[in-house]
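hey m, so remember when u said the tokens were messed up on ur end? i reran from scratch. heres the input so u can diff it against urs
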Amino acid sequence: MKKVLAFMLMSLSMIATGCSSSDDNNSSNDGSLRSKIVGKWYVSKDAGSNSYEYKGNGTAEYINYYQGNKEVYQGKWKLLKDNVLIEAYAEPGEKLDKDWETYPDMSNTVILVNDKELHLQPDYRHPSDPTPSIIYYKK
């Protein structure tokens, strides 16, 4: 009886550890999500609205239209574990800090609704950021 019980426990532990490889799944999902993030996203459905362009090489561009003026900010972005998107932008004419990943301007959890709609939920590791959820639209 002890041998049967030991065999059943051993079999169960092998099944439990062999069935899930969430780390592998996360990395393939991150690659798929990363490729879907790449492109130009607008903060409204209007073509002339502010936009964020995420490039495949990890660079980014934020275009801000304010009171008839257009400002372009160059930056970088990175998709971290658990679909957390970090990004940082330099003021026009300035360079981005080398430690931008440690102190990003924005840190949000990505929810891809479909290929044309992206929701960003603030990453609450930064409680001082009062920004509500943001919806981006791809043209």
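this time it looks ok to me. The first helix runs from residue 2 to 19. if urs says something different then somethings off w ur setup not the seq
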